Amino acid sequence: MYRLLSTCCAAVVSSAAQAQPTDLTVDMSQSSINLTVTLDTIVGSRTDSDSAAMTGSMRIELDSYESPTTITLHQYELNAGSLSFFFDYSFLGTISATAEGMSMSMPAGATPVTGTVMPDGTFLVTDVPNQTAGLISVTGTGAAGTALNDTMLDLSTLPQDPIEVSGIVNVDAGVVTIAISLPLDNSTMDPNTGTTVTLAGSATVIANGDVPEPVCLPDTNGDGAVTPADFSAWIAAFNAMAPACDQNGDGACTPADFSAWVGNYNAGCN
Known about the structure:
Number of domains: 2
Number of helices: 4
Order of helices and strands: HEEEEEEEEEEHEEEEEEHH
Distance between the termini: 23 Å
Number of strands: 16
Strand content: over 45%
């Protein structure tokens, strides 16, 4: 067994300690949504803006929590406070709109998405699955209100297109901090009134959390040490198709993980 551990297969060179996802909490005092709503009605077009604090959480993963080169978005759920908008059509009346329960999130079961982290910590992740939710209630007075006929816009019915997530990530004193910007552009028309509602703006989010403890891959029996006993534990994991079998990080349990385990065993863990 000892000869096998030291000589087998020209063992794959890899890091035995694997980075793990970390959960971040949105800092409400530094995170906000800034939204501009434009109403195009038969009596004219008007625009108003409002902002509110953001709350929520994120799950990200860095390939290294010392010098990251990639970032993976596993999950986010961002919630906005109430927003109010007022549109003055002079003698034609007024229109008021209130947005409640607005949120942005990665759909349940969405595949994590990875982007490159530059040396200065800036990053861009493209084609991120995104879903929006919330209700915008619109009421009015006078001719403007009559033309609108009261409208309820359900944001979950809007096109749910992938988005780009850009920002900067920093790790200091065991804390991961991420600052991101999320676009909020969308448009829809009410077929009953001909009113078009256009949303434009962004959500600026700052979130932080602790650096996770790395997993020692070759310690397959979980006793906190890398010893020959872990070989038997890896065989058992392989036969059971258990997660500990996956030593090369490809998400599958295959014979290639044996060579990877040998490489991880020889590298040891800090």
